[in-house]
What does this fold into?
Amino acid sequence: MALILVIACIIFVWITSLFKIFLLARIRSTKHFTLNGRAFRKRNVLLVIAHPDDESMFFAPTINFLTSRGHNVQILCLSNGDADGKGNIRKQELYQACVSLKVPMQQVKIINHPDLQDGFGKVWNHSLLAKIIDEEITSHCIDMIITFDKYGVSGHCNHRDVHYGVCKVLYDTSRGDIEVWELVSTNILRKYSGPNDIWLSMFWAMLPSNGTVQCLVNEHSRRSFTAMAQHKSQWVWFRKLFVILSSYTYMNTLRKIK
It folds into this structure.
């Protein structure tokens, strides 16, 4: 009887959380991502990721938010994910996934540099990363960058190196005209709490001690599943389970880097 009650409570909280996200998604606020308090305007955003599938597994709520409001989203993927020798396949999968997320293929750039190869233990040169990122900023008149935080959600060394590469651009070039936001990593319980994390994420975002924080709910959750399914070489059972249980499927908490 006690087990049935626990299961019923979990289901109730899950459904309530999904309903909360659904309601928040209907409130199409344009107050997010204004520049220095000025009125809403179209932004040129560069999403910097490490591997094909990062965009669908971790950043889909942010991409959906930005594209639905007419912002110009460029995606820079700093490797082709060739750890298992499937780099060419994964490259095409990324293009297809981005189309599902309403990001045109011509706005997606994938780097295949010998010093930026996918894999645990593969250390990426931060100066090289900064150089590549800086070139993209100039080419596309970027005024906002979004990337991983220093833990990189999963702790993957490539994710963390991308963060430090972006920070090197920010600090070394003194680009005061560019906003940089990082995706906040959460502990394992929150990470796999699905939509239930909306309550903690909203509370965490309100705490002044956390700096400038935005909590973005996924306005098109089905689109996220469709995008991840385009990564057929990676679409194994545990990643399917991840997409269902991950809080990153339902919301993103972004923190501004100063």
The mean pLDDT is 87. The longest strand covers residues 251-257.
